[in-house]
Amino acid sequence: MATITKALSSLKTYKFWKELVIMTLGMAVTAASVYYFLLPSKLIIGTTSGLAIVLCNILDAASVHISLSAMIMAINVLLLILAYFLVDREFGVKTVYVSIILGPLTDFWDAVLPWQSIATTNLNTGITSVMGDPWLDLCCFVLLLSAAQAMLFSINASTGGLDIFAKIVNKYLHFDIGASVSISGAIICCTAFFINDFRMVVVGLIGTWINGVVVDYFTTMLNNRKRVCVVSKDYDRIRRYIIEDLHRGCTLYEVIGGYSNEKSIELQVLLSKDEFSKLMAFINDNEINAFTTAGNVSEVYGQWFNNRRRKAIQKEMKKL
């Protein structure tokens, strides 16, 4: 009963609806990338959508017609059931949601703008493509899918499918999760031999590798923060600005100058790019003599994202 009450209360929060919108938009982009850039050319990338395209084509050859959206839904439901029994029964609700809506969203794009109306067929190769070349289709697919995955990773969600299969491989074959994703993707790419020639299979394998690289780039770009180190005699003034105006915590260290042998205070703080710009503007506008260095931090965990803590700091500052 308490679990149901907690679930119902979460429906009233801004965070729930914000993440729901992000997940839906992210999966809509994912569905578009699959429908327009994989389906026409039968380009198979290491995803469950790629596996669905292979199975649909094999069944079509056997005069058994199943829509791509139905096949995607069936594969994702099967993987979710396997994950429930083989991986973890407390599987994330976000993964269930994104796995289920991918198929219907593919149908949505089919109703809005069928790929047949914009695709062309190369008379020399016989390959149908929206962009006119499978390599261009590959580039468009990777960019759209990677951007969508980065959006979902930013809210601790994923596109499901391959991630589930990778977790099963990770648990029972004892590979690390990165290797599990690569192995799972390569296996799915190799199923393309049933419907494509060797050249298209190689294109799919390259696309799977590029997708991993681009996802890492987008994820790093979204999560990038600045580690700022400031040495100044006016460190307390800077500290108060960081706490009172930027609402961030900071750490103070006593340091000794190697040349002057003088003791000073170094202030360290993690900031977003916008907050870092504000801090530098504050130092420059107030003509504070400070030695400042900044470096990029790709991942941050713990209390940096704790909004309750930030709000508590703001309330304390208002009382003073």
Using the CA coordinates, give the radius of gyration.
Answer: 25 Å
Strand content: 5-15%
What is the helix fraction of residues, given as a range? 55-70%
Number of helices: 12
Oligomer: single chain
Number of domains: 2
How many beta strands in the DSSP annotation? 6
Termini distance?
42 Å
Estimated structural class:
alpha+beta
The succession of helices and strands, N to C, reads HHHHHEEHHHHEHEEHEH
Shape: elongated
Poorly predicted parts: none
Biggest sheet, spatial arrangement of strands: 4-5-3-6
Largest sheet: 4 strands, antiparallel
Overall average residue pLDDT: 79
General description of the model:
The chain is elongated, with a radius of gyration of 25 Å. It has two domains: 10-222, no CATH class; 224-319, Alpha-Beta Plaits (2-Layer Sandwich). By secondary structure, the protein is an alpha+beta fold. Strand 1 (120-121) and strand 2 form a beta hairpin. 29% of the residues are buried. The strands form two sheets. The protein has a four-stranded antiparallel beta sheet with strand order 4-5-3-6. Strands 1-2 form a two-stranded antiparallel ribbon. Helix 2 (14-37) crosses helix 5, helix 2 packs antiparallel against helix 6 and helix 8 (177-190) packs antiparallel against helix 9. It contains twelve helices and six strands. Helix content is 61%, strand content 11%.
Q: Key features?
A:
320 residues, alpha+beta, Alpha-Beta Plaits, 2 domains, 4-stranded antiparallel beta sheet
Topology:
Layout: H1 2-10, H2 14-37, H3 48-61, H4 68-86, H5 93-112, E1 120-121, E2 128-129, H6 134-153, H7 162-173, H8 177-190, H9 198-223, E3 225-232, H10 235-244, E4 251-256, E5 263-271, H11 273-285, E6 290-297, H12 307-319
Antiparallel strand pairs: 1-2, 3-5, 3-6, 4-5
Helix pairs in contact: 2-5, 2-6, 3-4, 4-5, 4-7, 6-9, 7-8, 8-9
